[in-house]
Amino acid sequence: MSRRLSLRGWGSSLGLTTGYLARAATQWFLLWFFAATAGPQGAGQFSLAMALSAPVFIFSQLGMRNLYMSMRDRPGLSTFFNLRTILSLAAGGVVLTIVAIRSDIGASIVGPVIAIKFFDSLTDICVGALHANGRTSRVTASMYANAVGTTTGAGAVFYLTGDPISSLWASAVASALVFAYFGIPVLRAYRTPTFGGLRARLTESGVIARSGLPLAVAEAISTLLAYLPVLYLAETATQTEIGLFSTAMYVITFANLFYSSTQQVWLARLAQEHRAGRLRAAAMPPLIAMAALGLLGAGATFALLPPLLPVIYGPEFGLTHSQVAPLAIAVLMLAFSYAANLLLLVLNRYTRQLYVAASALGVSLVTAFILWDHGSIWAAGVLVATAACARAVGAVTALLRAES
């Protein structure tokens, strides 16, 4: 019986992991649409839109999905959802303000990106509730629906119009439909009354905000670290170089999403083991698995990325092994970082993650200052590797201190 349950658990884990990767693949398709129609410069425009919006929306989420899954005395789902909705709307306004200030990116690209992130953010907290209640098959179904709907809708629009911006709007519509089909029923199923009226709801929102703020800052900084090379190139290089780097950088995006999905898969399970006092023994399998995945991913990045990029995007997207070597190092270091952060989440050490992310950002900013006059694809890769190394060292150090 236990073996059957174990196999079922691994089946759920595999489904979740492939679901996250499917979602990542849809973002890559959107990047490819821009690269196919406008070359490296078009890819650079799309990547810059993502770099400007992603940190803002990540911060607005306040780490609520992880909080809902790991808090011992958590407020009701409706409180989480209402707070997520308000903060997501505010995030959209902040991004539009940033775009209005800058002159190197148009609102026509950022508009659909904001819409996609808004509906995905609403779906995310609902999916977190499903995950916390053991509905992993439903979680996987929602991710596949988002991936298939986005790919089909955006692909069909791109085929008919050849316009990547129209494809972005089709992706936004798909995200809205996924929320309507999967998110709204979850809100109805797990709705719990909050006694005490508005004051009680505000109190619960304050609890979420206080608990999630360190995690939100840490995750926003981590996202900013991921996009810092693109922002660095936006100030020191050309749109073409941004596009060339972004196509290679997507291996880091896939790595982050893959490691994050693996972390999500293990989080609820390890939280239960921690409550039962069995965390130390239960933590070894995911730690070993993530280290092995990091080694495999780093080797594949260094060996396969240079010959694959021209095949996928065209001959103008070629890079050398020396240019992708820093990205391979980053893939390895990110595995160690996510493994340590997994245990910090289980131990509810949210503030320690803030210190780790802030330290890594500081190291990266110093590195960017040193490399400011060397605005190149290789220098941007060094920024990625530096940030990943700093995060890994900081997370492991924080975990050792937490255990002691």
Characterize the structure shown.
With 404 residues, this protein is mainly alpha-helical. Helices cover 88% and strands 0% of the residues. 52% of the residues are buried.
Name the helicity range.
over 70%
- Average of per-residue pLDDT values: 81
Radius of gyration: 21 Å
Range of strand content: under 5%
What is the CA–CA distance across the termini?
37 Å
Gross morphology is globular
Structural class: mainly alpha
The major sheet is characterized as: none
Put simply, the count of helices is 12
**Assembly classification:** single chain
Low-confidence parts, pLDDT < 50 over ≥5 residues? 1-10
Listing every helix as H and every strand as E from the N terminus to the C terminus, the arrangement reads: HHHHHHHHHHHH
Tell me how many strands there are: 0
Keywords:
single chain, disordered N terminus, mainly alpha
Topology (SSEs and partners):
Elements: H1 2-60, H2 64-70, H3 77-101, H4 107-132, H5 136-161, H6 164-189, H7 197-236, H8 239-275, H9 279-313, H10 321-346, H11 350-370, H12 377-403
Helix pairs in contact: 1-3, 1-4, 1-5, 1-6, 1-7, 1-8, 2-4, 3-4, 4-5, 4-6, 5-6, 7-8, 7-11, 7-12, 8-9, 8-10, 9-10, 10-12, 11-12
Short description:
By secondary structure, the protein is mainly α. The protein is 88% helix and 0% strand.
